Amino acid sequence: MNAPHARPKHRRIAALLLAAGRGRRFSAGAPQEQASISKQFHLLAGQPVIRHAAMALLPHVDVLQPVGSDPLLPEALAGLDVLPPVEGGAERHDSVRAGLEALAKLPEPPDVVLVHDGARPCVPAAVITRTLEALETHEGVIPALPVSDTLKKVENGLITGTVSREGLWRAQTPQGFSFPLLRDLHDRHRTALTDDAGLLEAEGHKVAIVMGSEDNIKLTVTEDLMRLERVIEDQKTQPAQATVLLPRVGLGYDVHAFAEGRKLILCGIEIPHEKGLAGHSDADVGIHTLCDAIYGALNEGDIGRHFPPTDEKWRDMDSARFLIHAGELIRSKGGMLVNADLTIICERPKIGPHAKAMCARLAELLKVSPSRISVKATTSERLGFTGREEGIAATAAVSIMVPDSGE
């Protein structure tokens, strides 16, 4: 297969295309003569649904392994540069394991693997590219979309409560992983999970999120066919345009006075010191400054707009929560953090011994590589309130790339 020229050449990339599912919800709503056909083999714009999914993956990978035993599968993929299908299992995780075992037997096993549902025919190239790029610095990556609808808990047809949507994302595929890691986890775990990211999460591995797409619809019910037809029609009638990313720069500044009887938290790390900082939350001046810089770059106000100090629920809150929100906001706009440069201004404590740990923690919260985060310190030469050791100040500059909205 021809590898896309934009991706790194030192990695061998494989994809599993899952086609073993029956799609019970789809069959229940399909006409009687079509109910016996698995959803991924229904025609969409004149071709099987799964063929569209395969064609979306092929330009990005070195090898594509279909998984499924349906006799329609070879016919649906006829003429495409894919491996012979391997038989799937009764559950999704069984099919993934079978596909991983087949890839492991290749003369040159892959370095990373994408796992994609054959019922997602319209995954945009940009989503696949973002997933592969994030795999350069993460062991697992999934595309997802932030939940925007209000969520209700219902029992017996009646609402029993409202579920907070903060921090909730809708997972999509292809999900990307380190091939050796995913194979090892599947060898050791036989637990049924709805996606492979759950295996990594259960073992304490970090899984990154990249921005998905509303066009990446999973065929679940018969009505989805009409939505997918519209997506394909739009792709035909609208000229393909590369997403243009524009740079945004944000600046942040914050100060907090020292206070007795509080822990000193800076950039998510507890620092040994005789005093902490005064504030409504944990008063992490480093994270607050960085949040303000990010919000400024996104034209989203400041940290007080999102987490008002007048709201008691934020009292003594771990400021990590604030930075996670700022990072999610970047991704929800389809953007990416290029770099962040943070300067802490104080006479004491000394920041240098903790700078590396601070960078690692901030990168973890923002779901980026630590190489994109800089933390450094300076003094004010004994001048002003920082010079008198009355408090700590911080400044931050961030660079963010976001899609051009055309406005």
UniProtKB/TrEMBL annotation:
Site residues (Positions MEP for the nucleophilic attack), renumbered to this chain: R165, K218
Ligand binding (4-CDP-2-C-methyl-D-erythritol 2-phosphate): D254, V255, H256, H280, S281, D302, I303, G304, T378, T379, S380, E381, F385, R388
InterPro entries (alphabetical): IspD, IspD/F, IspD/TarI, ISPD_synthase_CS, MECDP_synthase, MECDP_synthase_CS, MECDP_synthase_sf, Nucleotide-diphossugar_trans
Pathway in which this enzyme or protein is active: Isoprenoid biosynthesis; isopentenyl diphosphate biosynthesis via DXP pathway; isopentenyl diphosphate from 1-deoxy-D-xylulose 5-phosphate: step 2/6; Isoprenoid biosynthesis; isopentenyl diphosphate biosynthesis via DXP pathway; isopentenyl diphosphate from 1-deoxy-D-xylulose 5-phosphate: step 4/6
Annotated region described as 2-C-methyl-D-erythritol 2,4-cyclodiphosphate synthase, given as residue ranges: 248-407
Site (described: Transition state stabilizer): R25, K39, H280, T379
Cofactor needs: a divalent metal cation
SUPFAM superfamilies: IpsF-like (SSF69765), Nucleotide-diphospho-sugar transferases (SSF53448)
Documented EC number(s): 2.7.7.60, 4.6.1.12
Residue ranges annotated for the 2-C-methyl-D-erythritol 2,4-cyclodiphosphate synthase domain, each copy included: 248-400
CDD domains named in the record: CDP-ME_synthetase, MECDP_synthase
Alphabetized UniProt keyword annotations: Isoprene biosynthesis, Lyase, Metal-binding, Multifunctional enzyme, Nucleotidyltransferase, Transferase
MF GO annotations: 2-C-methyl-D-erythritol 2,4-cyclodiphosphate synthase activity
Superkingdom in the source lineage: Bacteria
Family under the similarity heading: Belongs to the IspF family. Belongs to the IspD/TarI cytidylyltransferase family. IspD subfamily.
Listed name of the protein: Bifunctional enzyme IspD/IspF
Species annotation: Bombella apis
Lineage start: Bacteria, Pseudomonadati, Pseudomonadota, Alphaproteobacteria, Acetobacterales
